Amino acid sequence: MIKSMTGYGKSTVEVNETKIHVEIRSVNHRFLDMTFKMPPALMFLEERLKQVVKGRLYRGRIDIFVSLVGEDLVEKKIDVNWEMVDQYITRLKDIQRRYELTGDISIDMVSKLDHVFSEKEMENDSDEWKVALLEAMDDAVRQLVEMRTKEGHELHDDLEKRIAKVRSWLNSLDERRPMLIDEYKERIRTRVEEYTKEQLRPDETKILQEVALLAEKGDVTEELTRLQSHFTQFESTLSIDEPVGRRLDFIVQEMHREVNTIGSKSNDGKMTEMVVNLKSEIEKMKEQVQNVE
């Protein structure tokens, strides 16, 4: 059964005093394209998180948001820039000697100098955090897949209804074809009579020759046969339990091509109207197929 490429999932796990929130959203895209927004302390797990997504999704633009509430994950460390301190003290002593100043260089003075202290966040890469985050990710992806599956069922039903509708238009086109022969014959006879201004008996052989030429020029038998084949292939592809979005998109393009050819060959008003209806419905199918995984 087909799946949609639109979905959403979220999950929250708690480790000690910190909560990890994971949100994942997906929309349609030709390929599988992932973007992450997460705290720097968790970036080392990005590749593992990608593998969780790749195991369940095949197409779509995937946006993943990971946020933290709490501080347990990050260990902070204060560093001293000893090289900078040495330079400060050396220069302060130089100033003291140069201007014969009195007083001591105190810890209070040094602690207020710029760039002496720096705060660093150290990654807490314990297995507990890894397992918790991966579990949250897996749960969020599971919810997203469920939503994509549900929407896929709705897409499937909609596309089946549209296929039934275009088949109906196609059958009408096929039924219309034989009627055109008689209409061509009557049209040519009427024109001959109009031009001669007399009720002469037209040469049936010549009329039939003209009808044959018109019929051959407007013959759409091959296009109708190929369209029937495309419809059958489309229906069977809908039931395949794997990503088929690209295949469906290709089939719909082929449908469009055949219908355009029929339209260019048609010189009959009723057939042209049916072609317009067919094109309109196939265009709607194309829009729906754009969201199939």
From TrEMBL:
It comes from the Bacteria. Pfam families: YicC-like_C (PF08340), YicC-like_N (PF03755). InterPro entries: YicC-like_C, YicC-like_N, YicC/YloC-like. Keywords: Endonuclease, Hydrolase, Nuclease. Residues 175-293 form the Endoribonuclease YicC-like C-terminal domain. Its cofactor is a divalent metal cation. Residues 2-156 form the Endoribonuclease YicC-like N-terminal domain. GO terms for molecular function: hydrolase activity; RNA endonuclease activity. Belongs to the YicC/YloC family. This is YicC family protein.
